[in-house]
Amino acid sequence: MHTYNVDQNGYYGEFGGAYIPEILYENVDLLKKNYLKILEDPEFQKDYHNLLRDYVGRPSPLYFAKKLSHKYGCKIYLKREDLNHTGAHKINNTIGQILLAQKMGKTRIIAETGAGQHGVATATVCALMNMKCVIYMGKVDVERQRLNVEKMQMLGAEVNPVTSGNMTLKDATNEAIRDWCSNPIDTYYIIGSTVGPHPYPDMVARLQSVISEEIRKQLFEKEHREIPDYLIACVGGGSNAAGTIYHFLNEPSVNIVLAEAAGKGINSGESAATIHLGKLGIIHGSKTLLMQSEDGQIEEPYSISAGLDYPGIGPLHAHLAKTKRSEVLAIADEEALDAAFELTRLEGIIPAIESAHALGVLKKKKFKKEEVIVICLSGRGDKDMETYIKIQKKRNG
Ligand SMILES: Cc1ncc(COP(=O)(O)O)c(C=O)c1O
Fold first, then answer.
1. Buried b (16+ CB within 10 A) or exposed e, 145-161
2. Binding site membership of 378 for ligand 1 (Cβ less than 6 Å)
């Protein structure tokens, strides 16, 4: 039976590893040797859980969405990561990694960001811990997620707009890695998803696994069972999904359905449906599925959602899809938008456009009345209001 744990070389099946420039060997090796020791240290655990409780506001509620359940003929629960401090699941990871960076004696933090949620979460913990913070963000994302850029600056971070490639998440990550190579001694790179060289995918999955730890307890309180029939989450690099499924992976009765971004349609040439379209390749230090041309050039992705607009996917998710432990559906811009407006009207919750892709799964599956579905509502929609207003105006003519 599969355990789905990373092996000692950092692989999930054929995916993962650490493909890095020589200048970073020592740095990444030190992290690899120390991360489990630090994460499992009782003092780290105490600091991490105290901050999750008193600063982030955990546990995040598991909310029974009555009207949504009625509409889709099943029992739908929303895991409310949107209610966390800074508005998304990203803070679970940045709290953990900044504590780790401190323990490793680092003084300067860098990060990449797409939707700006990871950038805000990083700038927030840097303010909290008095660390210098430098954020890389594609210029296109700087424009479409302006509110988050203002927040990062207000929190004291330096935000660098990146103008290479199609000026989105991939390009921001390239720049962050370049910075890291130039400053390997004092700088710690807080990666925002289950991507990058080993041990990052495993470390980020562990730090986000608090989501599924809480779901088990909360579902037992509400349904007298710890195990749902379905878990649904969106995947950009894969961190909210990894956190949602982590403690259920070895429960074969749990159906895992993940939503990637189909953009304007899987075959439109404008999508970020990496698992559907990707082939084996190496991106940002990891061997994984990657959208690429015949001759191996990375293809520029597209999605309305900055957080899902990435041509790669975390190696855990490539492995889960390949071994059919997860089912991956591609949700188009328009389907995600419909789902966002539906949730807003039915439940009074405006979701992040990323999370709306997970909600888009509801229309694509048939559920039974007694089945329990848990959807990770990874973030709130404040940052997407400009997009929603524009679409609403267009739709209303
Ligand atoms: C609210 C929200 N959900 C999901 C994602 C996608 O990231 P991941 O797949 O790592 O959860 C992002 C990324 O920025 C995000 O901001």
1. beebbebbeebebebbb
2. yes
pTM of the model: 0.98
Second CATH level (architecture) for the domain 26-51+90-204? 3-Layer(aba) Sandwich (3.40)
**Is any ligand 1 atom within 6 A of the Cβ of residue 174?**
no
Rg (alpha carbons) of the chain, rounded to whole number: 19
Q: Ligand 1: distance of its center to the CA of 271 in Å?
A: 16
Domain with CATH 3.40.50.1100 in the chain: 26-51+90-204, 57-88+207-396
What is the pLDDT at residue 2? 64
The Cα–Cα gap between 248 and 174 comes to 33
pLDDT digits (tens, 9 = 90+) for 80-138: 999 999 999 999 999 999 999 999 999 999 999 999 999 999 999 999 999 999 999 99
Q: How far apart are CA 370 and CA 131, in angstroms?
A: 49
- 81 flagged as catalytic: no
Q: Which atom of ligand 1 is nearest to the CA of 243?
A: 11
Q: Is the peptide bond before 59 cis (omega within 30 degrees of 0)?
A: yes
Confidence of residue 162 (pLDDT cuts 50, 70, 90): very high
pLDDT, mean over the chain = 97
Domain spanning 57-88+207-396: CATH 3.40.50.720 = no
Does residue 118 have its Cβ closer than 6 Å to ligand 1? Answer: yes
